[in-house]
Amino acid sequence: MRVGVIAAACAFAFAPLSAQDTTRTAQDSAVRVFLDCPDTFCDFDYYRTEITFVNWVRDRTFAQVHVLVTTQQTGGGQEYTLAFIGLERFAGTADTLRWTSQRTDTQDDIRRGIAGVLRLGLVRFAAKTPLARRLEVSYSAPPVTSGQIHDPWNYWVFSASISGFMNGEKSFKSQNWFGSLSADRVTEKWKMNFSVGQNYNQSDFHVPVYDSTGAQIGEEHIRAITRGDDESALLVRSLSTHWSVGIRGLASSSTYFNQERVLRVAPGLEYDVVPYSQSTRRLLTFRYEIGPTLYRYRDTTIYNRIKETLFLQSLNVSLRINQPWGSAGIAMEASNYLYDFNKHHVTFFGNGQFRIYKGLSLGMFASVGLIHDQLSIPKGGATQQEVLLRRQQLATSYQYFGNLQLSYTFGSKFANVVNPRFGGGGGGGFVVFN
What we know:
Helix content is 14%, strand content 50%.
């Protein structure tokens, strides 16, 4: 009797498991895919939900296919380049597909477009697995058209935006407003960009005032306002796969920089060591610009100027790389006024996201500026309020910024399951308990 019970229990326990094992074995044979988006947002949850004929993994060293997604700006949106890099038994197999979004596309339009390209690129790998028999191919025929595409806008794309931010409590209030207009036209030969922007920032502080005994006798109201505008125009002509020539125009004003009006025109020449067609994976450029700049100041400067016209030259060297091991970028920009080479400005930028070993990664960003060209600082100096509230630029010979992040992730290598429960949607993530 006891033996019969044990046999029945074993039959009950292992019967469903055999069916589960069959399903598990089939899914285990699916291609292991690592999705990598170093310079753009990828809706990973959406792709895991929509593309189920692969195994999504969170560690590149466990993947059989590394999908590297990089982007570059187009006249009307973004071009997404998806590089499918085979690993392990797919080593040596590679493919590159592209998809272009429009400026009017929503986030849902973009993620559906990228998902379609992901499916196309991954099918060639899935076709070599036991799951191939479960795949089907469908085709949506386009409407029949004749002749070339007619673009009534002639590649011009226009954009307008206004944004505001408000924050406050009993003793502090702030508001920030920004508006912009832009027009872009991008073709193989020409690149044109025109933009106008305005910004207004106001902060109000209510500071308690006390008498000699420490009793509050009132409060002081302090208001800090900074405002500015900027206008820019860029015209670039492609000369070859490596060379381009252009001209840049700038106009701006800023209370922070003591500038009532700044006007600049600067022709320039750029050389790309790597052909521009490979710019989503690597880009090394040298750009030189030179031209006059007219300054009209709000207050007399420390050099006893209220206005002046100076010639400025600049050199920019920039390197950007997106590879399976991560992404990195470094740049150097140097400029000086021709009348006095001691009036110069040199800035170094660097950023990167590096995969060191399995789940260990290092992220960093840093910039250092050597400043010797502050011509617009007011002769009268700054008040204590202007210093504390940063309402006015102060003299300095350098500035820097940096951050560093080291992270390590371990555990299950698979990332197939999506569970949005208690995800903080609808503003739940902003609840604050005092």
